[in-house]
Amino acid sequence: MLPFLVLVARPPGKIAVDENAAIIRYGQLEPNQLERLDLNQSLSSLPNLSKYSGVFITGSPYNYLTESKSDSQKRTEENVLAICEQVLAHDFPTLGLCYGLQMLGLARGGSLTRDYPEDMGPHTIELSHAGKADELTGKLPESFYSYAAHAEALASVPTGMQVLGSSAATPVHIGKFGENIYGTQHHPEIGRNGIGLRINHYVGVYFSEEEYPHLLQKCQAVRVEHGLITQFARKYRS
Q: Which of 56, 165, 202, 238 is the most buried (most CB within 10 A)?
């Protein structure tokens, strides 16, 4: 089988390592069936998509609407938007995770807003009528928990995108572009250990040390849904 390509949109570290391992685990892949491309580095050329079964786009600590951006963030945005335009032009199987959905939406001509944020934690995702009927998301529960944490989200539905799922706070949680490109505002790649890792990392940044024990208990007390990654990898492996 051809490997999948994961576009890594965050700096190296424990979260990036966990993210990669989770995609392998929930995608039911072998380690050699997932290749990584670091978007923080300068790219001499776009990836040759014919070498891959599909593409994953990771989450990121970067916010596109931030006014002051590091060189690393600028390189990441330039690289990911160029590859998003590439996969959209070819309707190439892609699953964007949080930041990945946002970048796909921007590449399609959409825009982002800070009107639909969600605090770090489990959120209920409800499939739309289109989501229930879709070949991939229709295999998920009609309502499920998934972790989310974002300041930005799609401001509206880009031309040609179907909304497959929403939450109470964020209208576009799962979107589909064309026939083979999906994006989620939530994080189906984050499991119980992964959310603990992220809470430890962001304590004192997004919440106080006093809030830490309650948030950790709240997040680890629920069962979250990972099947979107499983179904995507199963559908497109070749």
A: 165
The two tokens of residue 150 are: 């974002």
Helix axes of 14-26 and 227-236: crossing angle, nearest 10 degrees? 60
Question: DSSP assignment, residue 50?
Answer: G
Tokens of 125: 């995702």
Cα distances (Å, whole numbers) of residue 79 to 5, 105, 214: 14, 15, 38
For residue 215, give the 3-state DSSP assignment.
helix
Question: For residue 152, is pLDDT > 90?
Answer: yes
Exposure pattern of 190-214 as b/e (b: 16+ CB <10 Å)? bbeebbebbbeebbeeebeeeeeee
Return the H-helix or E-strand segment holding 160: none
What the block records as the tokens of 20 is 């990669």
**Between residues 21 and 238, which one has the greater pLDDT?**
21
**d(Cα 30, Cα 223) in Å, to the nearest integer?**
25
Q: Where are the domains of the chain?
A: 4-236
d(CA 136, CA 142): 12
Question: Is pLDDT of 204 > 90?
Answer: no
Q: How many residues does the chain have?
A: 238
For residue 196, what pLDDT band results from cuts at 50, 70 and 90? very high
The domain covering 4-236 belongs, at the CATH homologous superfamily level, to Class I glutamine amidotransferase (GATase) domain (3.40.50.880)
